[in-house]
Amino acid sequence: MRGLCAIRSPTFAPLPRGSFFSPSRNQIAFTRKFFNCRAKFAESGVEGSFSLKVIPSNLLAAEREEAKAVLILFLKKHGLGHAVAARTINKSDSFIDHLVSRLHSVHKSRYLVGRELTTLEIRDALIPCLETLREEYGNLLVDVVESFPNPPIKEQAVAPIVPPSVVPAPDSPLASNKKLKAISRVSEIDPDGKLQPKILYLQELGMDLDQIKGIVRRFPSFAYYNLDGKIKPVVEFLLDLGVQKSQIPTILNKRPQLCGISLHGNIIPTMTFLENLGVDKTQWAKVIYRFPALLTYSRQKMKASVDFLYDLGLSPESVGKVLTRWPNITSYNVEDKLQPTADYFHSLGVNVSVLILRAPQTFGLSIEANLKPVTEFFLERGYSREEVGTMVSRYGALYTFSLTNNLIPKWEFFLTLDYSKSELVKFPQYFGYSLEERIKPRYAVMEQCGVTLLLNQLLSLSGPNFDKALKAKMKKLLPSKHQNS
């Protein structure tokens, strides 16, 4: 039953060999309604079905996960609770196959040339089809998903979808009531006056009740996770990787969803996938602590980020270094975020592949709120765009600094120094040193000695080497007779 939106004639689930089947009017009508979603994509020009045999099995698995993610978000958007939506997904294998086949039909030409779909393309292909089915089936959409390809019974309305007009807002009384129930569960006391074993376990890890309630307030499902089946196995796995016990509360606070994912079915295979892409397996503890959400993303989403890095010209080894140092890059959409940022730096003459390897965090900044204001700051002070490009090429972290708290105060102090503005082009790392603890004290010592060092020497040399540089400079200024004596 794959690809109903893309085929020309009705198809029904196979029956046992030797049986006789004549489709009922309800089944024919049901199938015809699925064809209606095909009209949403008439402009694609794709006709006929597309064989799944040409798609690698690992890609199919990744696309199934993407389709599940789209479907569960769609169901939740239209009123289903997380638990109900999750149960529906578990009963929707045939429907998920249908959605994946829909992708292959709509984007047949992409696969024929070996181009895989991005997360955005998958979402854009499936949401209109789901919207069409919701409009036609309304409260029976859950039955459509679970009973696919068999037509649902009209009188039945299990787990109804709430119409968009009455979907509770996140801050509505209904939504707040769900959160309050989940939060109250955290404080439940047993007949012996003790908290739940799950809460006691989390407290042993260093979390207090307020922290746990904060997690549940943001992610209510965490209150219903089983200790032995979900939370404990994940925590012990992280500890075995080398994550410090003191870091567990931070990881759970950042990504409580991690405990809701299958350890052997998802987390470990995802780690293997990333190791094959170059992530340093000896650095997993640091990677997960920095960005635990990495292990909750689909492989398709992560591969899109990796392909972007390869397109920039990075080697496999360099890609692995970027993913290890800044795994957050996988959270950004290529078309909406990463590519526009690369284009912006290209416009300044920056070698983007070098920049993203040296300072990948720069690609998480907003072009309008962070990059452009910093560029304008230097342009307004007489630097050319080429000089700004040179500065960021030499010191990629330059754009990560606050204008108010860093760049402006250090610039104003720089104006009082006996250096030309070109020194900052040569050594933009100046902005990375502490003004009070490094720049001012070092400059004061140099002034007392009556000599001048290059800005690079003034700040980058270690204490002993700084002293040696000062003495060498002072010795050169002494008269030759004093040198002899």
From TrEMBL:
Belongs to the mTERF family. GO terms for molecular function: nucleic acid binding. InterPro entries: MTERF, MTERF_sf. The keyword Transcription regulation applies. Keywords: Transcription, Transcription regulation, Transcription termination, Transit peptide. PANTHER family: CGI-12 PROTEIN-RELATED, TRANSCRIPTION TERMINATION FACTOR MTERF5, CHLOROPLASTIC. GO terms for biological process: DNA-templated transcription termination. This is mTERF domain-containing protein 1. Gene3D superfamilies: Transcription termination factor 3, mitochondrial. The keyword Transit peptide applies. The lineage of its organism: Eukaryota, Viridiplantae, Streptophyta, Embryophyta, Tracheophyta.
